[in-house]
Design goal:
This protein is α/β, with parallel strands linked by helices. It has a single domain, classed as Spore Coat Polysaccharide Biosynthesis Protein SpsA, Chain A (Alpha-Beta Complex), CATH 3.90.550.10. About 40% of the residues lie in helices and about 20% in strands. The protein has nine helices and nine strands. A seven-stranded mixed sheet has the order 3-2-1-4-7-6-8. Strand 2, helix 2 and strand 3 form a beta-alpha-beta unit. The longest helix is centred in the last third of the chain and has 28 residues. It is globular, with a radius of gyration of 17 Å. The chain starts with 6 loop residues before the first strand and ends in a 6-residue tail after the last helix.
């Protein structure tokens, strides 16, 4: 059991005025979450206005314009609790049971990291989400571990989750995966199908080519910041 086991929910966002209210409504009612920190990447919509309607929710603006990984790294400078709950804005309907099943195993010291895997699409899709492309943004872990797991240029932008998975594998980090029963608002709904396909292809090619090279370097014993 972690002696001081307070938890900060870290919510990175950019132009999420239509969605951020839903996730914050769930987080503010959780007895397991002590602080909520929204890291805004420089929104140009009403995101900050919506966040401002929630009492006891802190917000900082990074204005880095360099993607999620850099915003999370920036936000960690302001977190003092020993446990951090990274949470994306695009999960709708996350409930107290979902939050508890992610946070409690880390609080009790049973695992170092707990990942919330959105349950949808049947057993095959869930197997894919759990073991092949584990890109969930819902992650609870010790704050110091999170700092170490993203202290690399490979964790920049949207490569943050894939690099963290790499880090966990190669540093013997105890990871637990739990299904969470929420609606995942696909980025496709925000930008349209064709642009979504283009973005996904570019993203996955760039992201996994880097991880593939890292795996080769590690296998060959090449030293580096990974």
């Amino acid at each position: 059991m972690i002696k001081d086991n307070k938890v900060t929910a870290l919510v990175p966002c950019l132009n999420e005025g239509k969605r951020i209210g839903s996730i914050l409504s769930s987080l503010v009612t959780s007895p397991l979450i002590d602080e909520i920190l929204v890291v805004d990447g420089g929104s140009e919509d009403d995101t900050l206005k919506v966040v401002g309607t929630f009492r006891n929710v802190k917000v900082i603006v990074s204005n880095l314009k360099k993607g999620k990984g850099n915003d999370v790294r920036y936000g960690l400078k302001f977190i003092k609790t020993p446990i951090t709950f990274m949470c994306d804005v695009d999960v709708v309907g996350i409930n107290q049971n979902d939050i508890e099943r992610m946070i409690v195993p880390v609080k009790k010291g049973e695992v170092d990291v707990c990942l919330g895997i959105v349950f949808s699409g049947g057993k095959f899709i869930q197997f894919f989400r759990r073991f092949i492309m584990v890109l969930t943004g819902e992650r609870v872990m010790k704050t110091e571990l999170l700092k170490k797991a993203i202290d690399s240029p490979y964790a920049d932008g949207w490569g943050i989750e894939s690099y963290m998975n790499f880090y966990f594998r190669h540093h013997n980090i105890r990871v637990k995966k739990v299904d969470i029963f929420v609606k995942n608002v696909w980025h496709m709904e925000k930008v349209g199908f064709l642009r979504w396909i283009e973005e996904r292809l570019l993203l996955f090619t760039k992201m996994y080519s880097k991880i593939f090279l890292l795996e080769i370097k590690t296998a060959l014993g090449v030293k580096g910041n990974y």
